Amino acid sequence: MPDTVDPVKLDPVDPAQLDPVLAVTLTGLALDAEVLRRLHARGFPDVRTTHGFVFQHLVGGPLPVGALARRMGVSQQAASKAVHELERLDYLERTADAADGRVRRVALSRRGTAVVQAGRDVRAELADDLAARLGARRVEAMRGTLLELLDAVGGTAAVRRRRVPLVR
């Protein structure tokens, strides 16, 4: 039987020793947790990061579930499951297609539109908080560097098309 490691006995990690990839990943996770904390405090206690991967495809307007699944790069069953959950939470609604009544389209509900806007507001406030703490020039330089990194690893095109893949 392999030995188990007691996490209490592990040596502490010196953040200054993190490699750049891990530093960016952990910073992103911490920022995401703060965004969620603020969204929960604003009346959206059930919203999760993964919901944003659905919302990004619906900000431009309603889509049939099949089209949503293709855009998300998942099966229609997986997209339907996500849609069902988000409908139950009142972030999405289904509407009849104007051209074909047999087709149901998925759209952001009023609450879904509100959480998207709240997310934008919270991220802007968090950016302002970072600028107040670190200085506006440093934050803008960081943003520029992160955008260059995003481009270097091939992520810019997905952002432009609002097709950032779900983290698996």
Please, could you describe this protein's structure?
The protein has a single domain (18-160), classed as Winged helix-like DNA-binding domain superfamily/Winged helix DNA-binding domain (Arc Repressor Mutant, subunit A), CATH 1.10.10. The chain has seven helices and three strands, in the order ααβααββααα. With 168 residues, the chain is mainly α. The model has no long low-confidence stretch (mean pLDDT 92). The radius of gyration is 19 Å and the shape is globular. Helix 1 packs across helix 5, helix 3 (65-72) crosses helix 4 (76-88) and helix 5 (110-134) packs across helix 6.
Summarize the helices and strands and which ones pair or pack.
Layout: H1 20-41, H2 49-58, E1 63-64, H3 65-72, H4 76-88, E2 92-96, E3 104-108, H5 110-134, H6 136-152, H7 156-160
Antiparallel strand pairs: 1-3, 2-3
Helix pairs in contact: 1-5, 3-4, 5-6
